[in-house]
Amino acid sequence: MKYGKYSLGHIEALLNKLGGEEVVDGILEGTKQADIRDVIRFLFDRTGRCIPYDLTSSVTDANRSFKLVQPEVNLADRLHRLVSLFPQGTAFCSVEEFEQEIAALRALIEANPRFKNCFNGVWLPLVLPQTEAGDYGTLLESRFLTAVKSSYLMKFPKRSFKNYHKGELAGQVSIVHQSHERLMAKMQERPVIGILLANPLQGFSIPACREYADSLPEILHLSGGYDFLTAIAAYPDVLGRDHYTPGNDMAAVQCQSVDYSLRCRVFDDGQLGFASWDHYAYDNYSGGLFFAR
Prior knowledge:
Elements: H1 8-18, H2 21-29, H3 75-85, H4 95-110, E1 123-128, H5 136-155, E2 160-163, E3 173-175, H6 178-189, E4 192-197, H7 206-213, E5 220-222, H8 225-234, H9 236-239, E6 247-250, E7 253-255, E8 261-266, E9 271-277, E10 285-287, E11 289-291
Parallel strand pairs: 2-9, 6-10
Antiparallel strand pairs: 1-4, 3-7, 4-11, 5-11, 6-8, 8-9
Helix pairs in contact: 5-8
């Protein structure tokens, strides 16, 4: 039999999908025609969360008590905040370039049916500063974490910030996902304008974040330390709001060993903590995805 691998159950299911006996008879007689098309696999569900198709790594349901709130974004204000937080002379774009690229990027994303629903989640326009090649952990601590601390305490002066790896990051952080390698290459050439999806991977373990990102289009990058920390510096009101803000998994990097990545989280005492963490799936943490051309 030519198609012997199919059971009677498979054949019955196919007949039902085609519309039953009457439709199938019509197809065989030539009075009806079946229109066969590839099905578009949407990447995001109606909430803006990634759909975990066929993943072998651990994923749990998102705890919706931990959520983000979409802000009204004034691009000029967010850019000026970043310029003030990074060392003098750090290369950023102009406000006009920021506005034009975000508009073009949104149009490109909305024209792609695979990205349907992505803006149903929280999305944050962002400029990543041009950053020279160098040790990831050293630059993370001296530049990006310094900006986060200043921004967070400026926004919430009665709270605290703690880097649990202070003085320990040099030589200890490495990139483990090719999409973040692409993003770092772009950052070495120029400031990178993009849109961060801040919690599309809530409930995904670190391996699940990486596995999911393996099949994404090149315009999407799994977030690591540079982009997530720049986002926290630009949006402390969103990503550092309170204890019920989802923690930020920097899944594209590892710290010290293959068993640990990095993350930021606001604790119930108001402290914003930065630390390494294990790879389990937690319902109140999320990896991020960064759109950039």
